[in-house]
Design brief:
Blueprint: H1 5-14, E1 27-38, E2 41-52, E3 56-60, H2 64-74, E4 82-87, E5 90-91, H3 97-103, E6 107-110, H4 122-133, H5 139-152, H6 168-180, E7 186-190, H7 198-209, E8 227-232, H8 239-242, E9 245-250, E10 253-258, H9 260-266, H10 271-276
Parallel strand pairs: 3-8, 3-9, 6-7, 7-8
Antiparallel strand pairs: 1-2, 1-4, 4-5, 9-10
Helix pairs in contact: 4-5, 4-6, 6-7
C-alpha cells in the first residue's frame, strides 16, 4: 500500500499526547561550556557546540566512554559537571524529568549497541516510541507508517523476528528506523559504526543520509531535514561523504573543527592518528 508520507506524518503528529512538536526554525541542539568527566578521565573541559536543522556534525572523541556518555548528557539522560545545554531552544539542565521526557519526543536516538528490546519483534521495536508517547486515534494509520519505515530500511522480511535472530548490522537498521518513527527534529547517534564492518557501516550511513532511491521519491518516510549529531571514536571513511562539520576532541579540548574533507586534504595525518597519539596534532 502506498502511503503519502507528508500526510501520514502530519496525521501521526496529531496523535501525540501533550504539546505538538515545535520544530523551531534552525537551532535544534546547543551546548556552551560543557564540562564532562568520567572517573579520572577528562572528557570535555568546556565544549561549545551548535547543530542546526539539515546539518550533520560528528564529534570524534578518544574513548569508548566519551562516545557513549556525551550524547546521553546532551539529551539529559546523564548529568554534566557544568555548562548549558539547549534542545529546540529550551535549556534542559533544570527541567524536571517529566519535562525532559516530553522534550525528548523530538529526539531520535541510536544507541551504540542498538538498544533493542530482545523479547519484542522488529515491528514492535520500531513502533515502541509511538506506543509509549502517543494515544492512538488512528491505529491503522500509525501501523501503516511503521510498516513503511520498516520497508524503507529493507527490514520487511524480518518484521516478525526478534533481535536475537538478526546480525548486528541489521539490528542497527532496526534501531535507525526506531529513531525515525517520531519524525524528530534532532537525531543523536551514539558511536553508530561500532561492532560492524566497513561495508555494513557504509550501508547504514547511506540509508541514514543518502539520497532517496527513485522508488522512494516524494514518499520517503525519513524525518525531513533533521539536525544530526554523531559521536565516534574514529572517522569512518563513509562519513566524509555526509558530514558537514567535524569536531575532534583531544584531551578534553577541541583540536580541530571544520569540514572533514578539508582536514583530509591536508595530508598531514589521519584522524585516527590524531585521536590515538599525543604528538599527531
Amino acid at each position: 500500500m502506498d502511503v503519502p508520507m507528508v500526510t501520514q506524518a502530519e496525521r501521526f503528529d496529531e496523535v501525540r499526547d501533550g504539546e505538538a512538536s515545535p520544530h523551531p526554525a534552525e537551532m535544534v541542539l546547543r551546548c556552551q561550556g560543557l564540562r564532562v568527566r568520567h572517573n579520572e578521565e577528562i572528557i570535555l573541559v568546556g565544549l561549545d557546540l551548535e547543530v542546526s536543522r539539515g546539518e550533520v556534525v560528528v564529534l570524534v572523541v578518544e574513548s569508548e566512554w566519551a562516545a557513549r556518555l556525551i550524547p546521553r548528557i546532551l539529551i539529559g539522560v546523564e548529568s554534566a559537571e557544568g555548562g548549558e545545554i539547549e534542545i529546540n531552544g529550551i535549556s534542559i539542565l533544570r527541567l524536571s524529568e517529566h519535562r525532559k521526557l516530553q522534550l525528548r519526543r523530538d529526539v531520535g536516538y541510536l544507541f551504540h549497541n542498538s538498544g533493542l528490546i530482545y523479547n519484542l519483534t522488529v515491528w514492535y521495536n520500531v513502533a515502541l516510541p509511538a506506543l509509549y508517547h502517543t494515544r492512538f486515534k488512528d491505529i491503522q494509520g500509525v501501523g501503516e507508517y511503521v510498516n513503511v519505515l520498516i520497508d524503507r530500511c529493507g527490514l520487511s522480511r524480518w518484521s516478525s523476528l526478534r533481535p536475537a535472530a538478526l546480525d548486528e548490522s541489521t539490528c542497527k537498521k532496526v534501531a535507525l528506523a526506531r529513531a525515525w518513527v517520531m519524525s524528530p527534529a534532532l537525531l543523536v547517534f551514539e558511536d553508530p559504526l561500532m561492532n560492524i564492518d566497513t561495508g555494513s557501516g557504509s550501508d547504514l550511513l547511506d540509508l541514514a543520509f543518502g539520497p532517496s532511491p527513485p522508488e522512494w521519491e516524494d514518499r520517503d518516510p525519513r524525518p525531513p531535514n533533521p539536525g544530526v549529531l554523531i559521536t565516534s571514536q574514529g572517522l569512518h571513511e563513509g562519513l566524509f561523504r555526509y558530514v558537514d562539520r567535524m569536531i575532534i576532541i583531544k584531551e578534553g579540548e577541541v583540536a580541530f573543527t571544520g569540514d572533514p574533507k578539508e582536514f583530509d586534504r591536508r595530508g598531514k595525518t589521519h584522524p585516527g592518528d590524531l585521536i590515538n597519539t599525543r604528538e599527531a596534532f
